[in-house]
Design goal:
Blueprint: H1 7-11, E1 13-17, H2 21-33, E2 37-41, H3 44-53, E3 58-62, H4 70-79, E4 86-91, H5 95-103, E5 108-112, H6 116-129, E6 140-143, E7 146-149, E8 154-157, E9 160-161, H7 166-177, H8 185-194, H9 201-215, E10 225-228, E11 232-235, E12 241-243
Parallel strand pairs: 1-2, 1-3, 3-4, 4-5
Antiparallel strand pairs: 6-7, 6-12, 7-8, 8-9, 10-11
Helix pairs in contact: 3-4, 6-8, 7-8, 7-9
Bound molecules: calcium ion.
The site of calcium ion has 5 residues, from loops.
Length: about 250
C-alpha cells in the first residue's frame, strides 16, 4: 500500500480546539485530508463538553481560548482521569507555557506559526503511541528506586523529585511505553522530537546520557535504558513494575 494513511488515522476522531476560525478551517481541512474525522470546539467550555461526550482519540488544544483557557481544559481533563492525548498549540513567544502545559499533562506541543506537515506528523506520532481506547492503562511505573507517574508527570528517585526537562520526560515515557522494543535514533527523533525538528541524532544520545545520569545508580553500567549496539536503545521490560490505581502508589 502506498497510501500514507494508516489504519489508525482512518478511524481516529480528532477534537480541534481553536478560537481563530481561519486557523480552525485550515487545520481541520488538513486533518480530513489525512483521513481523520474532525470535531471542532471554539472555546474551552465547548472543548470539555465534547471531550466528555464524544469518543475522541486526540485533542489539539490552543492555549489562548475564550471561557476556559487551554491549561484549564487540560488540567480538568486529567483530573477527570481522561488520558486522551493532548497536543498543545502555543505561540513561539510562550515557551514557558510549553513546559507548563507538559507539566499539567499535555503530551506534546507545536509552536505557532507551525508547518502543517510537522503538525500532522506529531498528530500521527501521538496516535501511534496512544493506548487502545477504553482499557485503563497503568500510569505509575517503578524501576529500581525510581517512580514515574505518567499522569502526574512526576519522577522521583528514593522519594525525591527528579527534575527532568520536558523533553527528557517525554523520552522516558516513550521508553516505558515501548519497553522491550529496540528503538532506533530515527524512531526516537520522529516520535519524541517530531518530524521537522532541526536536530541531530547525537541529540538523542545526549538526552539518553542525561536520563541515565539522573536515573541509573551507575550511569556507565545502565540497568534500565540499554544500548543496543549499532541499532539504538531499549528499555529493559523486566525491571518495570506497573500500577494502575493512584492509591497504590505508596
Ligand atoms: Ca487562540
Amino acid at each position: 500500500m502506498t497510501s500514507k494513511h494508516t489504519q489508525t488515522a482512518v478511524n481516529s476522531l480528532v477534537l480541534l480546539v481553536e478560537d481563530e476560525e481561519a486557523l480552525r478551517l485550515f487545520i481541520g481541512d488538513s486533518l480530513r485530508n489525512e483521513g481523520y474525522a474532525v470535531e471542532h470546539a471554539s472555546d474551552g467550555h465547548e472543548a470539555l463538553e465534547k471531550a466528555a461526550r464524544l469518543p475522541v482519540d486526540l485533542i489539539i488544544l490552543d492555549i489562548m481560548l475564550p471561557r476556559r483557557n487551554g491549561f484549564e481544559v487540560c488540567r480538568e481533563l486529567r483530573a477527570a482521569g481522561r488520558l486522551t492525548p493532548v497536543l498543545m498549540l502555543t505561540a513561539r513567544s510562550q515557551v514557558e507555557d510549553t513546559v507548563k502545559g507538559l507539566k499539567i499533562g499535555a503530551d506534546d506541543y507545536v509552536t505557532k506559526p507551525f508547518n502543517m506537515g510537522e503538525l500532522m506528523a506529531r498528530v500521527a506520532a501521538l496516535l501511534r503511541r496512544a493506548p487502545a481506547s477504553g482499557a485503563p492503562q497503568p500510569h505509575i511505573f517503578r524501576f529500581g528506586s525510581i517512580r514515574v507517574d505518567l499522569l502526574g508527570t512526576e519522577v522521583t528517585r528514593n522519594g525525591k523529585v527528579v527534575n527532568l526537562s520536558a523533553r527528557e520526560f517525554q523520552l522516558l515515557r516513550f521508553f516505558i511505553e515501548h519497553r522491550g522494543e529496540t528503538l532506533s535514533r530515527d524512531v526516537l527523533l520522529r516520535d519524541v522530537w517530531g518530524y521537522g525538528a532541526k536536530i541531530q541524532t547525537r541529540t538523542v544520545d545526549m538526552r539518553v546520557a542525561s536520563l541515565r545520569q539522573q536515573l541509573e545508580d551507575d550511569p556507565k553500567q545502565p540497568q534500565f535504558i540499554l544500548t543496543v549496539q549499532g541499532l539504538g536503545y531499549k528499555f529493559r521490560p523486566e525491571v518495570l513494575d506497573a500500577t494502575q490505581a493512584r492509591d497504590q502508589q505508596q
